[in-house]
Design brief:
The chain is built from 13 helices and 12 strands. It has 416 residues and is mainly alpha-helical. A hairpin with a 2-residue loop joins strand 1 and strand 2.
């Protein structure tokens, strides 16, 4: 399954396009540096000012640590200090010293729960920091892996459990597609950094359940919400359709994200001689096709709608920046895997949309949310807190499908 060579005129091979990607990545990094505060990293408003009222947030600290570790591996000055700050705060004020694991913020409340989603990002951040050779990263990774293995990974279900109370009591009966998708992302990174292929077996088990079984039966858009027996909850959050992490219905953006992850998983397993089912690449192409057919411009305007219902009608028509970041990365991955010119066309169309609508040339970064007419909005994602999605979109098209991001950059830098 060696990836095919893109056409000579593919944007993926053009030096000017790669230079443009690098410039966009550096611009995103510069904007994100303002998120650093005393105890971690905070959300940023649309002008790039930290929102101090909420304090340091663990999800932002983990994503920033991961992203700046990638930048450190690229040789971007100032990035190492940002990684080290993230490591210190994840080991300090954001960690639950009594019960283990991580609080959601530096200002924890008793009712908050320990989420698999957040802990997967802590593990991802730690693995990237280890690849970058930063001090303290190995200890953080050991802690993060221990929490994932002892608390969240369920051997019987071959998936990650969703959440617990602060003291690890009261396991949630809900099972989440989103948290397990990011669990797969973490598994890919851990397999490389820990040199342990059990993480690839776990990623395959999750992917088979969520994509080859459930998404295949649902028009190849991922099913997001399940009960404790992994039965779909079709009406989940019907009254809160625009939830930030658990929206009602189906999410075309996640089909793009899953398509890319399946190709990374296939390439990672192939690279070390593990067997691969043929459906990995087939399902990746079906996911991408479904996301384009059911998510792109389905309401008459360019862009990807946030959610659709079970009759494949738009529910939340806002355009979120992360869906375009994942779409462009998925198109690049599929073009690398297949050399099909259709994916090159999509890759160009997605970047043209990002350039026209999402890049904020006045204040920096990307608008995180647009309304149905592609005007800046902020009902779901106010401000510009997220570096991770857009920055990865500038890196993934320039790298092979395997190994995972940080390890690939480390090898380019001669560190791995």
């Amino acid at each position: 399954m060696e990836p095919l060579t893109p056409a000579a005129n593919s944007w993926l091979t053009l030096p000017a396009h790669r230079h443009w990607l690098a410039l966009q990545g550096q611009r995103l990094l510069e904007f994100a540096k303002a998120a650093r505060i005393e105890n971690g990293f905070a959300d940023l408003d649309h002008r790039g000012r930290p929102l101090l009222s909420s304090g340091a947030l663990t999800i932002q600290t983990a994503r920033m640590t991961h992203s700046f570790a990638l930048a450190c591996l690229q040789g971007i000055p100032g990035s190492a200090a940002m990684v080290d700050h993230g490591i210190r705060t994840l080991q300090g004020p954001l960690r639950d010293a009594r019960n283990g694991g991580w609080h959601a913020s530096e200002k924890p409340v008793a009712a908050e729960r320990k989420q698999a989603y957040l802990h997967a990002f802590v593990a991802l951040a730690a693995s990237s920091a280890v690849a970058a050779g930063r001090p303290g990263a190995t200890a953080l990774l050991t802690d993060a892996v221990d929490v994932l293995e002892r608390r969240f990974w369920c051997e019987e279900e071959q998936a990650f459990l969703e959440s617990f109370a602060q003291d690890w009591s009261d396991p949630e009966s809900y099972r989440g597609g989103n948290s397990n998708m990011h669990g797969v992302e973490a598994c890919l990174a851990l397999a490389d950094v820990c040199n342990d292929d059990k993480w690839l077996d776990r990623a395959l088990a999750i992917s088979e359940r969520l994509i080859h079984h459930h998404a295949a039966a649902a028009s190849y858009l991922p099913v997001e919400h399940f009960d404790a027996c992994w039965q779909p909850l079709a009406d989940y959050n019907h009254e809160r359709p625009a939830d930030e992490f658990r929206p009602y219905g189906q999410t075309p953006g996640h089909a793009f994200e899953w398509a890319r992850l399946l190709l990374h998983l296939e390439a990672a397993r192939h690279r070390i001689g593990l067997t691969n089912p043929s459906w990995l690449a087939d399902d990746a192409q079906r996911l991408f096709a479904a996301a384009c057919d059911l998510g792109w411009a389905v309401d008459g305007q360019p862009g990807i709608v946030y959610t659709i219902d079970w009759q494949q009608r738009p529910v939340v028509a806002q355009r979120l920046h992360w869906t375009l970041a994942e779409a462009v990365a998925a198109a690049a991955a599929l073009h690398q895997r297949t050399a099909d010119a259709a994916y090159e066309r999509w890759y160009r169309e997605f970047w043209d949309y990002i350039d026209l609508y999402l890049i904020d040339r006045e204040h920096g970064s990307w608008y995180h949310e647009l309304d149905a007419r592609n005007r800046p909005a902020g009902t779901i994602w106010p401000g510009k807190p997220d570096l991770y999605h857009a920055y990865q979109a500038t890196l993934l098209p320039t790298l092979p499908l395997a190994p995972s991001l940080a390890t690939a950059l480390a090898r380019q830098a001669g560190l791995g």
